[in-house]
């Protein structure tokens, strides 16, 4: 005999049912971020920290474990030494990875990152030429080579980052003046070559997301400014756990802001533009003119300073002071709670960090720190684009990728 069940007396309205998937995704994201920040952590602690019910936490943890994002930690915790031991959960960094592609002016960095943003494998690919499709196809092939060396790993997707104007929604590099790229369909080319989901963003915003997820200074949802000073100079601003993009992702384009004390001629026709003054190209040219080194690699200037070359050290400190002025200019407008700087001298030399901070008032100077990823900043920039998407919507992970 079939048993029938009467419908509930007051079925939920259509809007409530429609909201359930969004609510479920939001809760899954909250659980995964809690484990990322606190793990290994017990389910009961997740419930207390997130405000979700124990049953909801158990359900989400089971689903995230099925997707390969979480795992039970090996060492159980007992409650008072009695009863069933608590099995804390942690982010599973052993199986799933994302690919990272960062296109710089002299080379492309390809990398694999685990779910905690740690670099598993990395390779630099010098540019024989900068024709965009060939650069991107070489990057895709480089990723394939890294995956062949890590056969136990499964890729979830690829993140692409570059300087200049990168439109996240369109998946294009709209304008990279130093490479000569215009309207390059980076997402389309990489997706066709890799067969993986591809996500695209500018490298300053990507590193702001990396700091927000995995870094030291910008976690917790406060406001943060990230300044990137390489060959390209740009910035990103995050607040309430969101990095600001603006229409067509144009936010952070600071290359032609005037920098007090700047003397460098800019291709735009003005003098003292921020990028012209702070670009690594300018540092290397000044180092060559001073007889410090004859190359175009800014690390050679750092190496010379470490070997005791006084002019190399002076050039790095002078650049850091100008970076400090740029920080002052931006913080006067944005007033962030923390400032993260990616700049080669500040990364490697305490005297450069001190020189930068010396351009700021003491209260602001205390908020400035170097990047959290000094040895792998470009690899992390690429991978962070894909990891940001994962941590915003973990339920979007395809079981086919596990």
TrEMBL record:
Give the compositionally biased regions (Pro residues).
Answer: 1-14
Where is region (Disordered) located?
A: 1-26
Q: Which Pfam families match?
A: ROK
Which SUPFAM superfamilies would you find in this protein's record? Answer: Actin-like ATPase domain, Winged helix' DNA-binding domain
Extract the Gene3D superfamilies matched here. Answer: 3.30.420.40, Winged helix-like DNA-binding domain superfamily/Winged helix DNA-binding domain
Protein family: Belongs to the ROK (NagC/XylR) family.
User: PANTHER family from the xrefs?
Assistant: BIFUNCTIONAL UDP-N-ACETYLGLUCOSAMINE 2-EPIMERASE_N-ACETYLMANNOSAMINE KINASE, ROK (REPRESSOR, ORF, KINASE) FAMILY
Q: What is this protein called?
A: ROK family protein
Give the taxonomic lineage as stored in the record. Answer: Bacteria, Bacillati, Actinomycetota, Actinomycetes, Kitasatosporales
């Amino acid at each position: 005999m079939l048993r029938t069940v009467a419908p509930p007396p007051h079925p939920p309205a259509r809007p409530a049912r429609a909201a359930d998937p969004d609510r479920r995704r939001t809760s899954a994201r909250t659980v995964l971020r809690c484990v990322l920040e606190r793990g290994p952590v017990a389910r009961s602690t997740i419930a207390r920290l997130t405000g979700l019910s124990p049953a909801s936490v158990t359900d989400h943890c089971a689903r995230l474990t099925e997707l390969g994002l979480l795992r039970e930690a090996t060492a159980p915790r007992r409650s008072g030494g009695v009863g069933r031991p608590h099995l804390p959960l942690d982010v599973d960094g052993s199986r799933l990875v994302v690919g990272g592609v960062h296109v710089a002016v002299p080379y492309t960095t390809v990398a694999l990152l685990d779910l905690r943003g740690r670099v598993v494998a990395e390779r630099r690919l010098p540019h024989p030429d900068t024709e965009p499709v060939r650069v991107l196809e070489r990057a895709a092939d480089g990723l394939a080579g890294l995956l062949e060396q890590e056969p136990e790993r499964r890729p979830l997707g690829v993140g692409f980052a570059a300087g200049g104007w990168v439109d996240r929604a369109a998946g294009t590099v709209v304008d990279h003046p130093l490479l000569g790229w215009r309207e390059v369909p980076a997402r389309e080319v990489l997706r066709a070559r890799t067969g993986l989901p591809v996500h695209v963003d500018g490298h300053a915003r990507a590193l702001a997301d990396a700091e927000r997820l995995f870094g030291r200074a910008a976690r917790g949802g406060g406001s943060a400014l990230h300044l990137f000073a390489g060959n390209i100079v740009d910035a990103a601003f995050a607040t309430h756990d969101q990095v600001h993009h603006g229409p067509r992702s144009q936010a952070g384009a600071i290359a032609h802001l005037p920098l007090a004390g700047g003397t460098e001629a800019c291709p735009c026709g003005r003098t003292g533009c921020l990028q012209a003054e702070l670009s690594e190209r300018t540092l290397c040219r000044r180092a060559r003119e001073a007889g410090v080194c004859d190359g175009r690699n800014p690390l050679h200037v750092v190496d010379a300073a470490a070997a005791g070359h006084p002019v190399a050290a002076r050039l790095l400190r002078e650049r850091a002071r100008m970076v400090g002025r740029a920080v002052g200019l931006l913080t006067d407008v944005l007033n962030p709670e923390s400032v993260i700087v990616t700049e080669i001298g500040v990364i490697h030399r305490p005297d450069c960090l001190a020189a930068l901070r010396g351009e700021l008032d003491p209260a602001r100077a205390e908020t400035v720190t170097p990047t959290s990823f000094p040895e792998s900043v470009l690899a992390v920039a690429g991978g962070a684009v894909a990891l940001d998407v994962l941590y915003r919507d973990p339920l979007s992970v395809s079981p086919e990728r596990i």
